[in-house]
Amino acid sequence: MTDAAPLLEVDAIETCYGLSQVLFGMSLSVRSGEMVALLGRNGMGKTTTIRSIMGLTPARAGSVRFAGHETRLLPSFRIAQLGIGLVPEGRQIFRNLTVRENLVAASGNRLGNPDPWTMEKIHALFPRLSERGANMGDTLSGGEQQMLAIGRALMTNPRLLILDEATEGLAPLIRDEIWNCLSLLKSKGQSVLVIDKNVENLTRIADRHYIIERGRAVWSGTSDELIGAPELQHRYLGI
């Protein structure tokens, strides 16, 4: 990490669904090569923050800057083209395509990554996807669908990977595979913004954390600082 401008900078955004406001001045940043976790109880605005970053539910005020571009008013496809790969809550794979077709459909290296993700590298990361390559998306288990969603996002060779509920609802062995994957991505210098409820694993691999409460960031700090503040975890995370 350096003192250079953040890769992603979200500054005081406000986001609504119709007349219902969810975000009230939400701010966060992710530097190049950094893994940042967004924490909070259900319904506090974590997914809405991600949707605002991606332009899926545009913020009505504030600023979202990615790689030097103001993106708050851009359409989602343009934001993705700038180099953000999303693993959405619920996975949202193409169920009527095979595993291989899901990966190929998203593949590209428009930003010129000198060591791009390929089908072979995704198979090495998740061998199960190689075994299931000819299977339709709707025949996969939940864990396999999550692996596919991560692989699909990586095949875009993103500068920033965003994961919304990275391990929610997965079997313990599959969760371990996802955490191992995130550790590997961290070691490779991949910039990551991740939402998950497993504070123990997040503090093991993430550089910094934001806690969101009622649509705004109420705390931010390092993994060591979060580990050393059990009262904070109890107050905002229910731990």
Write the layout of secondary structure elements.
Elements: E1 8-17, E2 20-30, E3 35-39, H1 46-53, E4 61-66, E5 69-70, H2 76-81, E6 84-87, H3 99-106, H4 119-125, H5 127-131, H6 142-154, E7 160-163, H7 172-187, E8 191-195, H8 199-205, E9 208-213, E10 216-222, H9 223-227, H10 230-237
Parallel strand pairs: 3-8, 3-9, 6-7, 7-8
Antiparallel strand pairs: 1-2, 1-4, 4-5, 9-10
**How many domains, in number, for the residues?**
2
What is the CATH class name of the largest domain?
Alpha Beta
Largest sheet: 6 strands, mixed
Distance between the termini: 30 Å
Rg, please?
Answer: 17 Å
Counting DSSP H or I runs of 4 or more residues, the number of helices is 10
In percent, how much strand structure appears in the residues? 25-35%
Q: How confident overall, as mean pLDDT? A: 93
Strand line-up across the major sheet: 6-7-8-3-9-10
Structural class: alpha/beta
Morphology call: globular
CATH topology of the largest domain: Rossmann fold
What's the helical proportion of residues?
Answer: 25-40%
Q: Secondary-structure element order, as H and E?
A: EEEHEEHEHHHHEHEHEEHH
CATH superfamily membership of the largest domain, which one? Answer: P-loop containing nucleotide triphosphate hydrolases
Query: Which CATH architecture of the largest domain?
Result: 3-Layer(aba) Sandwich
How many β-strand runs? 10
